[in-house]
Design goal:
It comes from Rhodamnia argentea. This protein is mainly alpha-helical. It contains 12 helices and 2 strands. The chain is globular and about 60 Å long. Bound molecules: 2-acetamido-2-deoxy-beta-D-glucopyranose (5 copies).
């Protein structure tokens, strides 16, 4: 009886949800700048290519930037805003150390403002750049949907809701679900670590005094543990010290998943994908079939790029400040 009484109600909710989904989809369009700035993607690609020639960590940082931006307040370039007197911005929040490639976006933006003023949003630049670094490194290409507007709020205290490198699969899934992303997105997007770089602080807890029973995280391979200890001695004077998250870090490939099968995930949250039965089978299939991984990665990047997209708002003139 109760279940029957609930039915019409849940239908209404489903209809509303469907309406919301189709509205937010309608905002974004692969051809959004075709008339207003047809050269936009070419300008962004050239800027990203040039920056990568000067610093091989740029691809990892731009991919991380996109992920971080979309996870906090949706893909609205809130991560790019500078702190102002009275407001500490996201980029100065706790896990800020890995996102230092803002100058690349600034550079692309300056060129875009000359070519087609007040047209291409900072949120779209970040999204296009994230696709470009993947394709440049040998990964898949996909059409980026565009038309995002830039947000006006950036709050350092909100970065606490980013998934931490110590999370287990339950915690990761909860964090993804809050953004409308699922299990497949979690495993596929984690594969972005194929070109990732991490500082010691994100995995050091696995290396020493891990738990009351294990000095080193038992899911971490002995060889890699030793290598990481050498890279991250205690005490450590080098703030930039760290490790690429995959042995073939200049190439976007499925090696990341094979490394997980060998106990060589650098983050606890990487290795957890192989320890947990809910995600292990998918790690296995991505490790076996690179083109499957590429397809799922591209699809998940498109979904991530739709999280919290704003239809109305501004196109910033400089990405570091609201207009
Ligand atoms: C290429 O990148 C370097 C380093 O970021 C920068 O100094 C230079 O101005 C860039 N050149 C062009 C043509 O964008
Ligand atoms: C990280 O944020 C702190 C403030 O929370 C700031 O002092 C520091 O300079 C930031 N680090 C980087 C690399 O931007
Ligand atoms: C930032 O977020 C915190 C926690 O949600 C909130 O208390 C604070 O008022 C926010 N600050 C601004 C400037 O919005
Ligand atoms: C994941 O971590 C949370 C918080 O530490 C813990 O409560 C939970 O039992 C863990 N779940 C799994 C499956 O390990
Ligand atoms: C390891 O952790 C325990 C308990 O937290 C602490 O008492 C001990 O000093 C730590 N040992 C080292 C070498 O850090």
């Amino acid at each position: 009886m109760a279940a029957l009484a609930l039915k019409p109600c849940s239908c209404v909710i489903i209809a509303l949800l469907l309406a919301m989904v189709s509205i937010s989809k309608a905002v974004l369009d692969a051809h959004y700048y075709d008339q207003t700035c047809p050269q936009a993607e070419k300008i962004i690609l050239q800027t990203v290519e040039n920056a990568t020639r000067h610093d091989p960590k740029v691809p990892a940082r731009l991919l991380r930037m996109f992920f971080h931006d979309c996870f906090i307040r949706g893909c609205d370039a809130s991560l790019l805003l500078n702190s102002t007197p009275g407001n500490q911005a996201e980029k100065d929040g706790p896990p800020n150390i890995s996102v230092r490639a803002f100058y690349v976006i600034d550079d692309a933006k300056a060129k875009l403002e000359m070519a087609c003023p007040h047209t291409v949003s900072c949120a779209d630049i970040v999204t296009i750049a994230a696709r470009d670094v993947v394709t440049m490194a040998g990964g898949p290409y996909w059409n980026v949907l565009k038309g995002r507007k830039d947000g006006r709020v950036s709050n350092a205290s909100e970065t606490v809701s980013l998934p931490a490198p110590t999370f287990n699969v339950t915690q990761l899934l909860q964090s993804f679900a809050k953004r409308g992303l699922g299990l497949k997105d979690l495993v596929a997007l984690s594969g972005g670590h194929t070109i990732g770089f991490s500082h010691c602080s994100s995995f050091e807890a696995r290396l020493r005094n891990f738990s009351s029973t294990h000095d080193v995280d038992p899911t971490l391979s002995h060889a890699l543990a030793q290598q990481l200890k050498n890279k991250c001695p205690k005490p450590n004077r080098d703030r930039n010290a760290g490790q690429f998250l995959d042995a073939t870090s200049a190439t976007f490939d499925n090696n990341y998943y094979r490394r997980l099968m060998a106990g060589e995930g650098v983050f606890g949250s990487d290795q957890a994908l192989y320890s947990d039965y809910r995600t292990r089978w998918m790690v296995d299939s991505f490790a076996k079939d690179q083109s499957l991984f590429f397809r799922e990665f591209a699809a998940s990047m498109v979904r991530l790029g739709s999280v919290g997209v704003r239809e109305i708002g501004e196109v910033r003139i400089k990405c570091r400040a609201v207009n």
